[in-house]
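Lab meeting, action items carried over

1. Structure of the two-component assembly. Owner: GW. Status: complete.
Input record:
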Amino acid sequence: MNESQLIDRVIAGDRQAARRLYDEHVDRVYRLCYRLAGDDHLAQDFTQDTFLRAFTGLGTFRREAAFGTWVCSIATSVALNGLRQAKRFRDREVDLHEELRPGPDRRPLEHDLETKLTRAVDRLPEGYRVVFIMHDLEGYTHEQIAAALGVRPGTSKSQLFRARAKLREELSEFAEEWAS
Amino acid sequence: MSAGHPRFEERFVRFLRRAGSSYHAPPPTPADEMWERIEANLCAATDSNGPAMHRYHAPPPTPADEMWERIEARWRRGTALSSRSRMGAPPAPPPPLPIRPGGGRRRGRSPWVWGIGIAAVLALGVFLGRASVNRTGSEKALRMVRAETRGGDRAVAGSVRGSGDSAGGTDRRPGHAARNLAYRTVVVEHLDRTEAFLTAFRTRAAAAGSDRVTEELRISSWARDLLADTRLLLDWPADRDPRMSQLLTQLELVLAQIAQMGVGRWAEERDLIVDGLRSGDVLPRLRAAIPAGPALAPEKRGV
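Predicted assembly:
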């Protein structure tokens, strides 16, 4: 059974077909959500929300692109919106803690490359971070990223270029690791 | 070997991929666990009306006629008022010219005074015109957008239910037309404001002001407002030109970047954003999307 037939069956209410479609794409969706969120609970929530939206909105899927691309665009949108909400709550909590905690020792120590890289990637503007994660860490092509984010492939390329430039700047102290 | 050298770049990308593989490295996908919860959601409230998944946020029948009557009534009232004021009502007789005790024209008043007076009246007229346009049309439309986006999910679910006959087609119901009309009105208004903002942002990027922090906070707050409106428009269920969707998405990205710029870190980030604006042709595309003339005259633009 090809993907289109599978989709028809899901629309008709076939739960097994839905499970097959889910099995084919869940790993990619979960990995992307996890990379964006960095938290298992959030990643699971986003993945579930993505598939629920996909299954309930399957009738509106025009099939011009592959189901994988479509579901990935839903996942990106769900994850980014969810993260914005989570960030708002987190910021409030952080503000409260910062208020309560006295003293100058607030910044965590940054020793190794991993910590610095994580901080640098976290600090990238959202658009740069998404493209960097999708392309360099999860192996999406610029065309797939463009389709998922609703931008042109050229935009994806330039965002990646800027993301890398910013990371190079932030990680300049490790230059000898890649320059030698 | 310089930073721009291709081999250097290649090495850096390899390094990034190697080091970055640990960035938010996902554990094995808990597929079964998630499926159980998805299925439970899909199975909820099963009845005999069809597949359970179609009933996720299932909307009640759309009260299209009822809503249309209200829209039409308000629309008519608005049109009647404006047409009466334009042509229906007889023009008010001009107020009698005040006769000063001395009679005749007062000598010695400079033509400059008259000039300034006329300019002030003109400026007041333009201001009132703009204010009335912004306060009436766009706010009404924005309220409609908000109401629509609140019901957006339900509308999507509704379209899923009726997808057999309407998928890909255009809904010709009068309520739908009114929704699109309001949408376009608001979009044009919004693009106009965003263009003004981005132009200001770009020029301010070149010249740092004296009270930098206040300025940065002000711009961030402005960007957040525009970002909220952009997202509202992106979520609004209306027939949308794909190019407009693309433009709004691009604006969302740019505005989000500006809104998230940290105070004190502007110098490094704003140049990147301004570069992005330039390389993405954002402002020319934005200007091309704004029709010439007053922001709110959708009927005349073939909406």
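2. GW to write a short summary for the group page. Key points so far: Chain A touches chain B through 61 residues (CB under 8 Å). The two ends of chain A are 52 Å apart (CA to CA).
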